[in-house]
Amino acid sequence: MDQLRRVKTTIPGKHPNYGGVKRKRGDDELNWRKKSIFYELPYWAEIELKHNLDVMHIEKNICDSLLGTLMGDPHKSKDTDNARRDLQNLGIRSELHLYEDGNKLMKPAAEYTFSEANRRKFCRFVRSVKFPDGFAANLWKNVAQNDSRIVGLKSHDCHVIMQRLLPVGCRSLVNKTISSTIIELCTFFNQLCARTVNVTDMVKAQDQLVIILCKLERIFPPAFFDIMIHLVLHLPEEAILGGPVFMRWMYPFERYLKRLKDYVRNAAKPEGSISEGYVVDEALTFCSRYFDDIETRFNRPDRNDDGIHRTRRLFVFESQCKPMGKQSQVYVEKNMRDRAEFYILNNSPEIETYLNQHKQELKLRGCLNPDKAHRNEFADWFFEKIYAMNRVHAPEVTHELLSLASKSNVFVSSYPACIVNGVRFVTYARDVRLKTQNSGVSVPGTKNEMFYGQLQEILEFSYLNDFSVVLFKCKWFRCDSRRMVTENNITSINITSESYKDDQFILASQAQQVFYVEDPSRGPNWRVVQHVNHRSIWDITEDGMSDIDLLQDNSSSNFTLFVDLGNLPQINLQRNDGDVIPIVQPFTAVSQHVYETVSFLNDDDEDDVSEEDDETVEESADEETDEGNDDVDTEEDDDDHSYHTSDSD
Question: Which helix (H) or strand (E) holds 253?
Fold first, then answer.
């Protein structure tokens, strides 16, 4: 604050008062010379969070640097020729120094970059990924035809790659020490972007980020660590002070700016066009509030709206869906129908008393296998019990209870797709033909364990009085310790082993959607499970919390960020595959290269900067700003590019 009081009020730029040129900095001035006007406000000094770092652009820039360096992208890589010269000038990592080969300079391939074969593997991995409907972009469009580059990534694409794909794809393509450090950084962004941010998690992350950056410094060249890498250290503190990120980042603002930009019809008068378009939009919005018989922005249903269902007293009859596709009537064999009906009865909490009563009767009978007998006999016993009570007009026998006891029709309705609670599910047979993946399902067990599978059939069982229950018939994967492995918050499962063949049904309302991506580190039969938390779906009942821009995990505690710097091995950063990159520039350029050491902490060093240098720096900053604006997401990008459109529509 003492330095702030020394700042003088000056006019920036080339003002006529200074002869039309930039004013030179005085000897008593700091290297920053502008005080924000907000400091004139009486309460500004008491605000803990005086600024807000945009996580959207920080995450995108870090993803561009990290992915560009790994892929060896000549436009985005931080492993440039000058970065290698910096290593030689600092006298570190001699295995990565440029060396002479005849009249050429050769750049040894670094361990933190993909080889040509691994680069193509990673591109094929990204090309093979299929996301759920409305989750993210078709990233295969960003992969070059020859599987050598990934181009044209928007901010949301980088968001998905950093948190979903890069931790999975890099595990088998680089050294384990390098991949684990990258996974730790990606895990932090998963924690940071969660809907519910735990303060304890952010306090721990603030300490662990220092270790992560130290590990990164032992891997990547000094040129990798620009201001964006440094800003990561401040993100946990801002999350503690400012709350969850989705309330503060730039996605909604950038989309609204694109909306204003679309108002421009006369490029010569953009401000007037925006004003006219805004006024027209406000007028139409006002009028549309009085239209009830036509579709407007206020009554337009969501993309995956499942409609309004009638309220039922029994829980199982609440398992409804909005069917999609052609309906077909399927005859269900008695064995399968008995298993489905018992599952429906066993998952009805309203008849738990009858379930316990039947189990008690089996014990009194001395049944040798009471569980099997309960499964086989309960449906008939329940039918006789309810109808006996109905004959004496018992008040607890309702129409729904009577319909449930009467068993279902032998013919059931089958659908290829449906929408349940705002989530779209598609059977696997149809899903393989689409560019989206909506057939992955999971359900929690009684001991908080998770079961994963694929949706095979969507069946609607009909009962008396127009009641029905929608069941999902799934193929469940075996989830033992040999076929399901969790490492670094990444769960891999073997899809060749099937389990619970006699217990394949779940209620449609119980299903949680997941999607699977290939696991290059374990083989073609392994998939990595990715959980999905859909937009506009919350675990709370308060209104006004549905306008969320991205799909995040519910809590930061879902991810365990554990970083250990102890016993970090000293790795050789030169790849042993013999790959080198020739540089056309002659070897003598190394000795001719002039290294200038600039201290950003010493104010006197910048006082000697000439007027011409100041102008050059200003022009460079303007160019960087223009280039940065090209990477900003817009509403058009998010609508046309960042979200899937299912072929089933």
Answer: helix 251-261
